[in-house]
Amino acid sequence: MTKKSLEQVLKHFTFQDKDKALRKIEKTISDGKNNLHLLVDFDRTLTIGKDKDNRDFTSWNALTKLLPEEALAKQQALYKKYRPIEASGKMTNKQGEDWARQVLKIFVENEINLLKLEEDFANNNSIRSHTKAVFEACEALEIPIVILSAGIKQTIDIWSKNYFVYPTLTIATNLIVDKKGKIIGWDKDIIHVANKREKGHKNFSEIKNKRPNVILIGDAIEDADMADGDENILRIRINNPREDEALDQAAFANQTFEKFDLMINNGTLEPVLKILEHIK
Asked: Please, what are the domains in the chain?
């Protein structure tokens, strides 16, 4: 691939280290489809994180919206306690798991039903522009897509079904439900912001071993750590900060390029397609 062609791809992104970005894009393309997989976050990456009324809507608060008033107040108190720690980047594994377990317990105690979730989620969820095209391109090239999320697996599965986009593998917190759809528990392996890593997931190791190159896509700064490695990992950040991430654009960019190679500013996944178009 010529340098001119590489630079045509690069113009769809913002970046700080041009030489490094070009080198990684070239490696991703030249090593070919058989050495590549995509590793993507879910909330605010494949979705825009807002409902039709522009309110926050993620795989977690899709469930919290079904809580009665008193239970919702408990959940919100937990959010106010733990979210500042998460936003600071200092959340420990124990804190992440404690937060998730306490919220999951509220879901169980209030007998939240996934059938109701499916109905509500279908009316409120979103998909980021060009996401479906990325999935279709990867399917045509037989490139696996792994969703690694600190969200809820069932919610992601409902989203996948609604939009007819099917990841190769989804790694997220898995709920246990009864025959009527009521949440009665959860699997012991809770995925949260402090442990959201591809490393250590047995059902993912085969993909990683056979396909060492990764296009990693996320919105949060912590998403850069989903995969280990440097030269074989092309890290792309969606510019989609939360309201409590009070950074101006210059500070946001500086933070981004401490860990990511590229950033998408146009709110779509179309720039990722520009890379995939050159992969054979």
From this structure: 3-50+124-276 (3.40.50.1000)
